[in-house]
């Protein structure tokens, strides 16, 4: 029965592959204004975007610190911030508490800012009260921090003006970090925060205050608008730019409650003057923001200001962005330009939702191209989720068939959506927005290693170019070199997560990039990236960006210059002499299967000793499995044989005959049950 299932599974996937691999073959801006006759009505309008809420945050509308500090607390409970006049429960606040069916209220601030009379009026509505307060705005922010939690870190900013705290509110909320207010007298001592972002320059937050915190990163600009821009740029990878909340940078009241709403959808708050600052325009342009929610009425953010911002969003056709999404020990890359999108790979199986949510956060509704470089789980694992979640234009996949459930899921997702697969042919060119990409590999029809089936793509945008190599190894690299293909690129996506099987010196010399990006998991079991590869990059003074060190990396091109959202990373790599607990896909390959003499030959193509514990060799036809001995080490650059029947080899499988002489496929799986090689 098991044998039948194995054979049936293979032929089902083969049939799907054949049927799917057929012959080679600005949206408008929207504006929403949330405004009332005064700050309290505006607060109610903002709260009106919440359908129901068990919890609400009550803060005074007469000053800014308490409401702004409370944004992360509001996010923790998915609650609105409702402003009160301080001494009375205004009708707008009362009506919202009733409409939302609130059961509990956090009153932020002492009785001097939100009176006991207000608390009593709220209690009369059958709502439980918890007051969060200190002797001043600074101590109140500390008390809020205790409720939010500081284990992930905190943002520290001045308590003397509203702008920086307003800018950082939704970001801090979505990172689940509190906002700590400080000044020269209230320095946040004894809070025991181990990861700190200081927002504002030395004038706003002096160094003697900063010294009370650990692992500090300071984010600031020449003015509040540049600080706002630098905050958004620093945390761009976690922000949803499908919409932005626009607030005046000159006064606080109308924006006080906006942070809670922005935080719900992970949208940014962008500060603007009546005549928008260049930094404000840059945020809109750099992030392709076309949908705006205005906080406040015409006198606060005039229509002329909004039109200037819309003009910036509608003329942003000159930037190309490449998002190297942090999916750990895997690959997923989003390319966007002029409202057109392409996705290269989609991470592991467990990364499906992450990739889908990331694409949605960038406003993607249709992927014009999906490129599955090769059928390994760390490249196509989340692809079925992507296909099921978006409109898809063209799917490009190599003709490489495997028997894995992951691959089967992708094929079924394609079939169920009525899509077909386009086979990559070297030299084929496709347009994407104002740029284009060209297929450079694979250049053969059959390989021992699935990695060499990788679709290699060169993206060109005006005077800039990017090279995406999947897991293509030295064999594929040499094929591209020998065919005389144009490999020169400004940015290289380092092949195979920095493995020693890729990025040969000859290939690197031909590409000759200024920048390199390594998509790799932190502290991964494979020892990636390899020290030799990193040394090659360093010797050519190539700036390296790494997802294991910086998270998601976004490269932005205007056609001449390329900038990154993070600073360059290290050249640290794993030494070739170390023994890894598992091998990189393709490091060890089946080089020969002698069906008659019952001998399978494996070769380790790296300099690294590989621990083969939990690896297995499978006879597909007979559904027989050989488990490598626990603790067995395959030395670097070595070759071993696995024998069965009457033959002898490095390792003895069994004295029984395993292999079908009429034809039998051998498959090698690593410790994570990933198909490494077949023959």
Describe this structure in a few short sentences.
Helices cover 27% and strands 25% of the residues. It is α/β, with parallel strands linked by helices and 679 residues long.
Describe this structure in words.
With 679 residues, the protein is an alpha/beta fold. The chain has three domains: 30-314, no CATH class; 319-564, Ribonuclease Z/Hydroxyacylglutathione hydrolase-like (Metallo-beta-lactamase, Chain A, 4-Layer Sandwich), CATH 3.60.15; 579-678, Lamin Tail domain (Immunoglobulin-like). The chain is built from 21 helices and 38 strands. An eight-stranded mixed β-sheet has the order 18-17-16-15-14-13-26-27, with helices on one face. It has a seven-stranded mixed β-sheet with strand order 19-20-21-22-23-24-25. The protein has a four-stranded parallel β-sheet with strand order 1-12-10-11, with helices on both faces. α10 runs parallel beside α12 (278-286), α12 crosses α13 and α14 crosses α16.
- Count of distinct structural domains: 3
The stretches of 5 or more residues where confidence is low (pLDDT under 50) are: 1-6, 16-28, 576-586
**Major sheet summary line:** 8 strands, mixed
User: What's the β-strand tally?
Assistant: 38
Please tally the helical runs, counting DSSP H or I stretches of 4 or more residues.
21
The level of helicity is 25-40%
Strand content: 25-35%
**Averaged pLDDT, please?**
88
Gross morphology is: elongated
In what order do the strands lie side by side in the largest sheet? 18-17-16-15-14-13-26-27
User: How far apart lie the N and C ends?
Assistant: 24 Å
Structural class: alpha/beta
Backbone CA Rg? 29 Å
